Amino acid sequence: MRGLKEEHAGVRIAHQRKLAGLTQRGLAAQIPYSYSLLRQVEEGRKNASPDLISAVARLLRIDVTALTGQPYVTELQQDRLAALIRPIRESLDLYDLEDGLGHVPVTEGDRGRWDGNGHGYGGNEVRPAELAARADDLCRMVRATQLSKAGNALPAFVAEVTSAAHRTPSTVLWQTLGSAYRTAHDIATKLGFYDLATIALDRLGWAAERASDPRLAAVRQYMRALTYFREGEHTVGLRLVEAGHRALSEIDSAEREARETLAVRGQLHLGASVIAARAHDADAVEGHLHEAAAYAQRTGEASRVHWLSFGPANVTVHEVSAQVEMRRYGKALEKSRQVRLPHGWPMSRRAHFYVDRARAEMETGRCDAALESVMTARKLAPEQTRYHPGARETINGLVAQRRRTPDSLDNMAAWLGL
């Protein structure tokens, strides 16, 4: 495994620690981790968990990407995904221009559908319902982890809806534009461009305000909360969850018990559960999971409500994630055996579950099972798994634990670019 030692997060932690003028003991004294563990992480003999990475980043006042190495530019270029980013960035930047990106190149897949100016090719006016359906298609692609396909189609679509919404503003068109911005956020996040994901969330808030849609505003707060969760800012994350609940309280009383509203409320509790877990607040975790489960009983599997995958299955998957975040790896494995993923559940969520399970398996010494779980995640969602920092750190950890690595592990590490 040549080059692996230079790639893992422990090396980056050591580099940033030295830039800050701290010794290993000095850094360990200021984070909730032992000197022994920190030393092993920096030497590559232990895995750098997401909570350790966020704790170090928060203390050193740097972004977590400085420690995870995201975005993984070499692999993105190899997969021809890096070229997706600039057009998406431009489409988000020109949100306040009526003609969006102006002339939009027509891809073969869009030929006969859009002209970039709110009309179908041939001059037929595109109805808002048709644009909303197209936005839904893009969400579906991302959930199927067809990131390249969705990313290629997105800029032209954003320009299309931007133009339509400015010319003939309506609730449906602003909601549709909000959905497109949400897709931009999801693609940027999965590929490790967190600065772009933040811009997309700002645009989502702008569209939600014009749509006067509290549910869309609440979904945005949920996603903002997860951004701060990644950075280890637990208190801010939980405040954003509460802001999401407050947004939902603005809904007309007749709609407060609607399935869509209940699903968003439940998902906010799931977000709060993993944030509280990383803060090691077991009581808060239990409370939020209990609330989410109660909402899930009322909604059933509501995977297409804002594409949140909310429902009983997502509650059990978040129970696993919460146990992993609290470093209760044995408990996480026990919970994972109770998970029954519904038929048709999004590949993105399935793969994420297997990455979480792999971490618990690795930390409990089940190396073969951990490798199998990452391989399953790869099979389900190759583009997502290749750029998932958790998958990469798990494979790094497995290599560090094995004196002799099997060909399957070598191949997986090479595929991840380690």
TrEMBL record:
Entry-linked SMART domains: HTH_XRE
Annotated HTH cro/C1-type domain residues: 13-67
InterPro entries: Cro/C1-type_HTH, Lambda_DNA-bd_dom_sf
Taxonomy, superkingdom: Bacteria
Organism: Streptomyces reniochalinae
Gene3D superfamilies per the UniProt record, alphabetical: lambda repressor-like DNA-binding domains
UniProt cross-references to PROSITE patterns, sorted A to Z: HTH_CROC1 (PS50943)
Name the UniProt record assigns to this protein: XRE family transcriptional regulator
Molecular-function annotations in GO: DNA binding
